[in-house]
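Is this the right way to post structure tokens for a design question? Let me know if I should format differently. Anyway, here goes:
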């Protein structure tokens, strides 16, 4: 197991920057729309929107939009691949109603950091689809040993931890099932989502790490970008 996506950990350690973005509701609404449209992952998308205090009527509209019950431009999910500084692999998940705008904005950000878009499949083979569930250790109402037994009984593929979080890994199709099992067993889930985890990490010089972090932040700050993944060892 290669472990959790290190970029996600860095964002968490930096605080609540995501929650302060003015466009966070738009991103979450688009995620709900896509989940509604695809017929999978809707419960988790709605839960994430609720945790961000998105108004119920906006969530309902996003669901209706995904079902085609509202007029207007349709939101699509588009995956872009790129080479970042030092040739590290980057995968960008966009939720957009205008692909031309999205790729233009993304290309502009990449160009400013000596990075380039890559052809489809150029770097995706370096990643694997995983469901990941985050559990805040401070909120677990049982011993470490008992919590580990519950995780094993949940059918999870694996788990790891850092000082604050337990990361539970599942097959993407079992994400919701595993999440519900943990919650039923009194283990509170902070976040659950499907991710692209790097199979191995690429080491980068210390002076390049900050450049990569700034690039990933700039990409995620674009209105149409929902998630970014990298194999850089940050």
């Amino acid at each position: 197991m290669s472990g959790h996506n290190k970029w996600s950990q860095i964002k968490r350690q930096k605080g609540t920057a995501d929650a302060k973005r003015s466009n966070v509701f738009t991103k979450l609404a688009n995620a709900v729309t896509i989940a509604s449209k695809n017929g999978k992952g809707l419960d988790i998308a709605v839960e994430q929107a609720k945790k961000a205090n998105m108004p119920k009527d906006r969530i309902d509209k996003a669901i209706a939009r995904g079902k085609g019950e509202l007029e207007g431009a349709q939101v699509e999910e588009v995956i872009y691949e790129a080479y970042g500084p030092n040739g590290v692999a980057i995968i960008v998940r966009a939720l957009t109603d205008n692909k031309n705008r999205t790729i233009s904005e993304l290309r502009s950000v990449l160009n400013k950091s000596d990075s380039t878009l890559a052809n489809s499949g150029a770097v995706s083979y370096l990643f694997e689809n995983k469901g990941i569930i985050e559990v805040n250790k401070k909120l677990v109402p049982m011993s470490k040993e008992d919590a580990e037994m519950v995780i094993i009984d949940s059918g999870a593929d694996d788990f790891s931890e850092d000082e604050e979080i337990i990361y539970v890994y599942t097959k993407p199709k079992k994400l919701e099932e595993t999440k519900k099992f943990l919650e039923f067993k009194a283990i509170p889930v902070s976040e659950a989502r499907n991710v692209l985890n790097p199979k191995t990490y690429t080491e980068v010089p210390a002076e390049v790490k900050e450049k990569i972090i700034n690039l990933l932040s700039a990409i995620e700050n674009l209105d149409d970008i929902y998630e970014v993944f990298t194999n850089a060892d940050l």
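Format looks fine. Someone answered above. Worth noting: The chain has a mean pLDDT of 87. DSSP finds nine helices and eight strands in the chain.
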